[in-house]
């Protein structure tokens, strides 16, 4: 193992530099990782001290940044898990990560504090997630023992094919459909778009599906509304409430 550079843009700042989604507030100050021997007081930046091995850094728009793989690892080790899952799902979906580089980061940082969180985040990533809200939803559902049977399931109803965010198998009926409604999804949407969305949901309900929808506000807290909504719907379907993590 050999060191690459003395410092690099890292953590949330590197997330933004790579074009990965970031949930929550943007960093108030640029975030940098520096080698211990190069640490100094720098006003206007947030410094992290860690080794920067070769293969852990790349140039982005003239800046030296931690690689996508190292950035996701750093985020997982230092922030709530959903930050790394949101960025990692996006990276997986757009082929921005490489297995060899993931293995290199895990090998070089194997004994670092928080590396178990990195492994947990990487093992949870799913390229089928189409938005940060879906990524956070999936994590919340898993934490409460309510994992769906399928993601992005295609359902054929009334001569049309609908793709839904989440689907659960139920003892009675064709199943439970879960849909995350992000504000961006309908921002500036025409009345025609809203009408088609309602017509789509009506068609699913008429075909016997239970439909549960939720928004960002339903994802937070020790007992998030999302978990309560899904648990209640599953109980109504006869499947039961699921286990509680």
Layout: helices, strands, pairs:
Elements: E1 7-9, H1 11-17, E2 31-34, E3 46-49, E4 57-60, E5 63-66, H2 68-78, H3 81-93, H4 99-108, H5 115-124, H6 132-143, E6 150-157, E7 160-168, E8 176-180, H7 183-186, H8 191-206, E9 210-214, H9 225-237
Parallel strand pairs: 2-3, 8-9
Antiparallel strand pairs: 1-2, 4-5, 6-7, 7-8
How would you describe what is shown here?
By secondary structure, the protein is α/β, with parallel strands linked by helices. The protein has two domains: 7-127, no CATH class; 138-237, no CATH class. The protein contains nine helices and nine strands. The chain has helices at 11-17, 68-78, 81-93, 99-108, 115-124, 132-143, 183-186, 191-206, 225-237; strands at 7-9, 31-34, 46-49, 57-60, 63-66, 150-157, 160-168, 176-180, 210-214. The strands form three sheets. Strands 6-7-8-9 form a four-stranded mixed sheet, with helices on both faces. α1 (11-17) packs antiparallel against α2 and α2 (68-78) packs across α5. Residues 241-245 have low confidence and may be disordered.
- The coarse silhouette is elongated
**Assembly context of the chains:** single chain
Coarse structural class:
alpha/beta
The strand count comes to 9
Number of helices: 9
Whole-number count of domains: 2
Task: State the strand order across the main sheet.
Answer: 6-7-8-9
How do the SSEs run, as a string of H and E?
Answer: EHEEEEHHHHHEEEHHEH
Mean pLDDT across every amino acid position: 90
Main sheet makeup: 4 strands, mixed
The percentage of residues in β strands lies in 15-25%
Rg, nearest Å: 21 Å
**Which segments are poorly predicted (pLDDT under 50) over 5 or more consecutive residues?**
241-245
Helix content: 25-40%
End-to-end separation: 39 Å
